[in-house]
Every structure is written in structure tokens, then in C-alpha cells.
Amino acid sequence: MSSIWQAIVRGYLKIIEPAADLLVRLRVSPNLLTTIGTLCSVAGGIAFAFGRIHLGGWIIGLCAIFDVLDGVVARRTQRTTVFGAFYDSTLDRLADGAVLGGLLYFFATDPVHRNKAIVLAAILGMIGMYLTSYTRARAEALGIDAKVGMMQRPERVALISAPQAFFGLALNGYVLMAIVCILGITAWITAIQRILFVRRATETQEQTRIRIIGGSKKLSARFASRRAQS
Known about the structure:
- The protein is mainly alpha-helical.
- It has a single domain (2-203), classed as CDP-alcohol phosphotransferase transmembrane (TM) domain (Four Helix Bundle (Hemerythrin (Met), subunit A), Up-down Bundle).
- It is 73% helix and 0% strand.
- 37% of the residues are buried.
């Protein structure tokens, strides 16, 4: 399954290569691409909130290109910065919240599809997605690359866009309900996987005191080159 997903990713990167080349030639700011992608995700979340499920899925799916291009352009133009990574990661959390927030609002207010259980699932899903991000960020602060787990950001974007774009409210909304539940469950599983991964990694290291506030140690170049956490 992993090899299939990697093949899809490689194919996608090859397709967007001309767009990346054009943006590099135009010296477009990677942070601008990050901002545009986030605004598109917010627009998709608003479409979800007002019951335009097909439209929201297409907006998020088609505009996911910006989520890839910002990193590609940053690396090719040698504009990878610590702030760029911070900005990208921060706006990714805004995008996640907007999308699931839109679905939460829809299931809380729509007269036909109102469902308290799915509202709860959406809330738990939002918490789970923030946990997946937080666990990786805290692991990196400890010098551990915890980019593990079954549902990372690319998979989440694909799951939140493709089924909605093609199925919308098919089967009286049960397809969408299933997607919300899957997102919530896999987010929590991913967070737990990362916690266990960090536990195993730290068990093999010599225990040292870690300064949480006011530390003088600077970020390494490895963190400066990374555009996002997911």
C-alpha cells in the first residue's frame, strides 16, 4: 500500500513540474503560495458549512497543489527558512480547523443531516489532527523526526477532498459521515503512533535535562529546511 501511495506522489509531482518551473522563474514567494493554499482550504470549509459538499471537495482537492508547490519553490529558490517552516505549519493547522469546522457546522445546523454523533466525531477529529501536529513538533524539539503514522497531512487532504468531490451527500450523507469518522479515528491512531515512536526513541538515548523555556540552543539547518509539520 505504501509503494502505491509513493507512486501516486511521484506521479503527482511530475504533473505539477511545469507549474513549479514557472513559479521558480517568476520568483514567487513560497509564503504567498502557502497563504493562497490556506485561503482555498478556508473557502472549501465554508462551502462544506453551507452544504456545498461537492464544491468544497473540488476546491480543497484542486487547490492542494499549493500545499506542495510552496515547499518545492522554497527549495529550488533556496528560500527555505525557519520562519517559512513555522508559517507553513501554522497555516496548515488553520486549514485543518477550517475544513473540519465547516463539516462540524454543517452537521450541527443542517435541518436534514443534523447529527449530534457526527458533530462529536468532528470535534474529536479536530483534536486528533492537532495532536498529530503537536506530537511531531515536540518530537522535533527533542531532535527526533517523528514523521510516522498512518494518516499524515497528504493522506488527510486526499481523504477530505476526493470522496466529497465525487460523492457529496451520496447515500443520504452516510458517505460523508463515514469520512468524518475515519478522519477522527486515524488522527488519534497517528498521534498515538507518534507518541510510542518517541517513547521508543528516547528509551535508547541517554536521559538529559531539557530546557523548555529560555533555551539558548539555535535551530539546526535541518529544521530550517523543512517547510511543514503534519
